Automatic annotation (TrEMBL):
Pfam families registered for this protein in UniProt: TRI12
The name this protein goes by in its record: Major facilitator superfamily (MFS) profile domain-containing protein
Gene Ontology CC: one annotated term: plasma membrane
Subcellular location: Membrane
Location (main, coarse): membrane
Domain of life, per lineage: Eukaryota
Higher taxonomy: Eukaryota, Fungi, Dikarya, Ascomycota, Pezizomycotina
Keyword Transferase: no
All residue ranges annotated as the Major facilitator superfamily (MFS) profile domain in the record: 54-504
Membrane-crossing residue ranges in chain numbering: 57-82, 94-112, 148-170, 182-205, 211-232, 253-274, 286-307, 327-348, 363-383, 395-415, 421-440, 452-477, 546-564
Stored InterPro entries: MFS_dom, MFS_Str1/Tri12-like, MFS_trans_sf, MFS_Tri12-like, Sugar_transporter_CS
Length: 605
């Protein structure tokens, strides 16, 4: 029978038996520890001997619904923005809907993550579900595009809290099962992440666009009820057994860090979003927010976090950034994989329309080449990482395959749609796997008490990478086509028999997409139109080829970072950082919620 003495000496290693002789353990303990730590040790020893119990499973299900509610709240409405604009618009500002969601979620994830480490996670999960529910109700009744954009912004705020579900789920199960748990959460998100656009278009076809919001309302309602009943982690008092009050902790909040991070990142991402849309990258409207945001986030914030007063509960605990291999390397990979995870789904439907087909329903089915494989890949990656260990090797292999398959998509031509789907699907699968394993690496690279900030930084780095990628990839497509489209069209239509005097007018009409304008031009024949269409496809194919090759510029450094990262094999133990209380709706429950990872703190004699 293992004793408490052996448990403490092993610094939290798994005790194989579920029962401990408490009296014998107390007598054998060589170094006295606080009664509170002793009690936690006894409870933890017994708790870790169990398999996942019903309350843990129900809590994880509630968190999975929260994650799926977050996905549905964004995936469905964002897929039909043009339909919404046609009904209550039109407005050129409709594109800001998805951008506003991304900006809000990027900033709020880190802030919510750190605050949940300090004040507890339950209230943040509930607040995210409530906020998302209310805003979706408002959006569903919107009569103007401005209301839709405002709603997307506020649902992005809700997402910043809802996406903490990955941190919440990771800390309530044994560490060796954390990968499988997050994999299961991704499987639960299949409807939104895989079929979101298909569902949205089906709702528009058979009902109306407001049903895209109604589905989100139902999902958030279910998530709210399940979380309120089944997710009962330790609250503020459980996190602060030393007796610190909420007001004392509030006064210690890093308000300067919040201002520098939140304000700086928001300004920087706005500058990125304005680049070539609608301002030039060299304009003051773009350069000013970029420079100010970079100074705040990359200069002022690190200096404050490193040298600010220690009486402040730092937004970014300096100790986690000292773990270069275990935390900073995975954080960079999260940024790089986020560029692909968020950036490419924006351009894949455009590539399909410009190279293969313009039939809306067919384009929607092509979009599954990203959503389904990325979700399945993330689930398989998370399962494999925890199940088979050799974590650094797996992380490196997934990252390398992500970069390699993405580069191979550059071989696609207008007449190889099957190749495009297959290569893009494999790329998406390894992007999803790399992203999920990146979450696990970051969580294990931080202390158990900092899992919220670790998960939040993952979300922020990923969203920031995605925003930069959208701007970068968009500039590549625009610049490449602007330089080559007109000359290639001219050469093609002249060879097809169009009089040279009509070339300039034809190019303008062709780019505008107006059939009436094309019919009015003398000398336009079906052969000329076919030649122009073929030339345009090859111009766009060359532009996308450059886009996929550019991904190597951050894919290769990501491979190096993964190879240099720290293995997590020794951390895949039976330890359970947090125990949930029994399900209930109101009242104190059984009072069994416990912060088990507190035992890892060095006990005082």
């Amino acid at each position: 029978m293992s004793t408490l003495k052996e448990y403490v000496q092993a610094e939290g290693n798994h005790i194989e038996t579920a029962s401990v002789d408490h009296d014998q353990a107390r007598h054998e303990l060589a170094t006295p520890i606080k009664p509170q730590n002793q009690n936690i040790a006894l409870q933890r020893a017994a708790f870790e001997g169990r398999k996942i119990d019903v309350r843990t499973a129900l809590g994880a299900i509630a968190l999975a619904f929260t994650y799926e509610a977050c996905i549905l709240s964004f995936a469905l409405p964002s897929a039909i923005l043009l339909t919404i604009n046609a009904d209550i618009g039109p407005s050129a500002q409709i594109v800001w809907g998805a951008t506003a969601w991304s900006l809000a979620a990027a900033v709020l994830q880190t802030i919510a993550g750190r605050c949940s480490d300090i004040f507890g996670r339950r209230k943040f999960i509930l607040a995210g579900n409530v906020f998302g529910l209310v805003e979706l109700i408002v959006e569903s009744r919107a009569q103007a595009v401005s209301a839709i954009i405002a709603g997307f912004t506020l649902t992005g705020v809700a997402a910043g809290a809802q996406l903490l579900a990955f941190a919440c789920a990771g800390e309530i199960v044994p560490k060796k099962w954390r990968g499988q748990t997050l994999a299961a959460m991704n499987c639960a998100a299949l409807p939104g992440s895989c079929f979101g656009s298909v569902i949205a278009y089906a709702l528009v076809a058979h009902m109306n666009w407001r049903w895209a919001f109604y589905v989100g309302i139902m999902a958030n309602s279910i998530a709210l009820i399940l979380s309120a009943v089944f997710y009962w982690p330790p609250g503020f008092l459980g996190l602060h057994p030393e007796g610190k009050t909420r007001w004392q902790q509030f006064k210690e909040i890093d308000f300067v860090g919040l201002f520098l991070f939140g304000g700086g990142l928001t300004v920087f991402l706005l500058g990125v979003s304005w680049g070539n849309n609608p301002y030039s990258w060299k304009s003051a409207q773009v350069l000013t927010p970029l420079v100010l945001g970079a100074i705040c986030c990359l200069v002022a914030l690190p200096l404050w976090e490193a040298y600010g007063p220690n009486t402040v509960a730092k937004l970014f605990p300096p100790q986690i950034f000292k773990n270069i291999r275990g935390f900073c390397m995975p954080l960079f990979i999260s940024f790089a994989s986020g560029m692909l995870l968020i950036g490419l789904p924006v351009f894949w439907p455009q590539e399909v329309q410009q190279l293969f087909t313009t039939v809306p329903q067919t384009v929607g089915w092509y979009s599954l080449a990203w959503g389904c494989p990325s979700t399945v890949g993330s689930a398989l990656g998370g399962y494999s990482w925890s199940r088979f260990k050799h974590t650094r090797f797996q992380f490196t292999a997934m990252t390398a395959l992500m970069a390699a398959f993405m580069a191979t998509v550059s071989s696609v031509t207008p007449y190889t749609p099957a190749r495009a789907v297959v290569l893009f699907a494999f790329s998406a699968a390894f992007v999803g796997a790399t992203c999920l394993v990146g979450i696990l690496e970051l969580q294990f690279g931080a202390a158990d008490g900092d899992i919220g900030i670790a998960t939040g930084l993952m979300g922020t780095s990923r969203a920031t990478g995605g925003a930069i990628a959208i701007a970068l990839f968009g500039s590549i497509i625009r610049n490449k086509t602007a330089a080559n489209l007109a000359p290639e069209l001219a050469a093609a239509v002249i060879a097809a028999g169009l009089p040279k005097s009509q070339v300039e007018a034809f190019i303008a009409a062709f780019i505008s997409g107006s059939p009436t304008a094309l019919e009015s031009i003398e000398g336009v024949t079906p052969g000329v139109l076919a030649a122009a269409a073929t030339a345009a496809k090859y111009v766009f194919a060359d532009a996308y080829k450059l886009l996929y090759l550019v991904t190597l510029s951050f894919g290769v450094p990501a491979i190096v970072a993964a190879a240099l990262s720290r293995s997590c094999d020794d951390k895949l133990t039976s330890q359970v950082p947090v125990r949930l209380d029994a399900p209930h709706l109101l009242g104190q429950g059984k009072g069994e919620a416990l912060v088990l990872h507190k035992l890892e703190e060095k006990p005082e004699a």
